[in-house]
């Protein structure tokens, strides 16, 4: 396998970052309704959201990039796609002159793997391209929340701090508002046009970058289409004559037919995430997305019949013995499924869509018959699925509130380069490094060298990203398949009431639903009963869930709904 082709197939999640050093992002099509403003209501704490007229004054103008034309345009919230071979001579220039003024900028960011040396060729070439001396303070991504909390509680905050959405718990959101600068004077309205690649970031992603009533974040955009794909061994399906299932009953029947424990073959891993999608369960990725207004009442995902039905169906798969023993032992798909999937020990699993390409690439030479493909999500009863939108950005870079204008301008110069679109010199520099040193191009396919795999990791890509793209010049059919999958699923995707809003919950309720993921895993494996979930929901209501509902109700009443 060569970690070569640029893949930005779904919004970055902790799972996809830990699974790969590649950063996954995705495109957002169109804007969302701009809603009215709402402030905090929790005893003076800075929680709530900002949208509507107030947001409209804050948001950057959107100016679509025309530097590069994708082979497959965005549709129904999909990424844009590129299926052609890459010719270095044809790369476009999206930043014609250096905007950096030569200052030094320190950036603290999560890093998965071993950070390279400070003076490596990737860092020095990027700094020369931008005109800024970036000094990286890379921190272990696995323990980043601890380092983040300590740094934000101190007086020694770097010029830029990257904060993933999954680390925005406890006091972190309040610290973001207190410690980081308002970028509105530099980016709101037409001001962003000084940075054309930032102007081409979709409005939805900027909406998510508003914290405490100010535009504070530089976003990493992502598609609002779910990134969890039921991936399957298409080659084995064709060989055995299996049909791709179109309902939960068909899936179970297929799973029983395909499983032969004596021959060490099982149908699938834990299919809980696909079950949630098949039954139309609201998203669990971010707490605000788990709420939606139904018949005038705000309902949280765990209160719905669909939630219980999805768990019960997943439980049936385990009870029927069609789930691989590895998944029966642990949490949801915690181990790397690649080797046993390649060996044919199981035929279906659900994971981040980036694995569609990565599994293809790693098996291309050693197993030429291997073919992985994405199964369309089905409605549980055989009808159309009812899918829910993910938020359009989930990782942000923030600038220190104490930074002088010169430093802020230099940070924006960095972001304007890192947000360059696929097919530009700046994109190649950001994602691949220096030709010959970090990558080579053969037959239109860029491949990282050993040095490239050391130096060109998750650094500059964390500052800001372009509206997302899927581009696999080595496997164009996979790129086409991924984009078209997103387009088909996007047609069935709706936005819940709080889509796109950057909402900070009152601290006393932020951990209220934290134990449900473990409970779900216990229920589907038969260690707990569905009745235990119902009891946990009752406890959730009495311990603050109903009060939290009232709090969200106030936001909804003052803002209106983003549902669509």
TrEMBL record:
<dbReference type="InterPro" id="IPR050490">
    <property type="entry name" value="Bact_solute-bd_prot1"/>
</dbReference>
<keyword id="KW-0813">Transport</keyword>
<keyword id="KW-0732">Signal</keyword>
<protein>
    <submittedName>
        <fullName>Extracellular solute-binding protein</fullName>
    </submittedName>
</protein>
<dbReference type="InterPro" id="IPR006059">
    <property type="entry name" value="SBP"/>
</dbReference>
<comment type="similarity">
    <text>Belongs to the bacterial solute-binding protein 1 family.</text>
</comment>
<dbReference type="Pfam" id="PF13416">
    <property type="entry name" value="SBP_bac_8"/>
</dbReference>
<dbReference type="InterPro" id="IPR006311">
    <property type="entry name" value="TAT_signal"/>
</dbReference>
């Amino acid at each position: 396998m060569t970690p070569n082709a640029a893949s930005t197939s779904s919004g970055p999640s902790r799972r996809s970052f830990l699974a790969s050093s590649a950063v996954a992002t995705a495109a957002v099509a169109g804007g969302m309704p701009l809603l009215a403003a709402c402030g905090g209501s929790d005893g003076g704490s800075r929680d709530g959201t900002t949208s509507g007229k107030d947001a409209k004054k804050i948001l950057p103008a959107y100016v679509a990039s025309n530097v590069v034309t994708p082979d497959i345009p965005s549709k129904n919230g999909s990424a844009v796609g590129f299926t052609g071979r890459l010719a270095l001579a044809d790369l476009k220039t999206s930043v014609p002159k250096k905007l950096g003024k030569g200052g030094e900028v320190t950036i603290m960011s999560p890093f998965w793997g071993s950070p390279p040396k400070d003076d490596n060729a990737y860092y020095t070439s990027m700094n020369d391209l931008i005109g800024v001396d970036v000094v990286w303070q890379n921190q272990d991504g696995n323990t980043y929340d601890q380092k983040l909390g300590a740094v934000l509680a101190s007086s020694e905050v770097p010029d830029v701090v990257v904060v993933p959405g999954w680390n925005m718990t406890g006091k972190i959101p309040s610290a973001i508002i207190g410690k980081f600068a308002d970028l509105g004077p530099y980016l709101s309205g037409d001001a962003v046009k000084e940075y054309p690649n930032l102007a081409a970031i979709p409005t939805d992603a900027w909406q998510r970058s508003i914290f405490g009533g100010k535009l504070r974040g530089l976003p990493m955009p992502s598609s609002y289409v779910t990134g969890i794909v039921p991936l399957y061994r298409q080659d084995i399906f064709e060989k055995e004559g299996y049909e791709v299932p179109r309902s939960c009953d068909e899936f179970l029947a297929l799973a029983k037919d395909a499983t032969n424990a004596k021959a060490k073959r099982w149908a699938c891993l834990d299919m809980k995430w696909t079950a949630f999608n098949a039954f139309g369960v609201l998203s669990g990725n971010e707490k605000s997305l788990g709420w939606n207004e139904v018949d005038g009442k705000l309902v949280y995902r765990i209160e719905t019949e669909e939630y219980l039905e999805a768990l019960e169906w997943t439980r049936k798969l385990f009870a029927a013995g069609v789930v691989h023993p590895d998944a029966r032992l642990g949490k949801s798909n915690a181990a790397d499924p690649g080797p046993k999937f390649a060996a044919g020990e199981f035929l279906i699993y659900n994971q981040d869509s980036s694995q569609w390409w990565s599994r293809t690439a790693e098996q291309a030479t050693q197993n030429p018959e291997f073919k992985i493909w994405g199964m369309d999500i089905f409605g549980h009863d055989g009808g159309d699925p009812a899918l829910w939108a993910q938020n359009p950005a989930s990782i942000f870079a923030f600038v220190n509130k104490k930074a002088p204008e010169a430093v802020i301008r230099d940070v924006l110069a960095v972001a304007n380069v890192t947000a360059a679109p696929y097919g530009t010199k700046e994109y190649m520099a950001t994602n691949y490094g220096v030709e010959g040193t970090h990558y080579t191009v053969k037959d239109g396919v860029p491949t990282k060298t050993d040095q490239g795999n050391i130096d060109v990791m998750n650094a500059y890509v964390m500052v800001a990203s372009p509206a997302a793209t899927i581009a696999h010049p080595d496997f164009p059919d996979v790129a086409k398949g991924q984009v078209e999958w997103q387009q088909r699923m996007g047609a069935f995707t709706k936005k819940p009431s709080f889509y796109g809003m950057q909402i900070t919950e009152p601290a006393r309720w932020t951990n209220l639903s934290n134990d449900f993921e473990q409970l779900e895993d216990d229920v589907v494996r038969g260690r707990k009963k569905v009745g235990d979930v119902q009891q946990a929901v009752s406890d959730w209501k009495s311990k603050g869930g109903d009060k939290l509902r009232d709090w969200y109700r106030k936001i909804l009443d003052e803002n209106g709904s983003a549902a669509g």
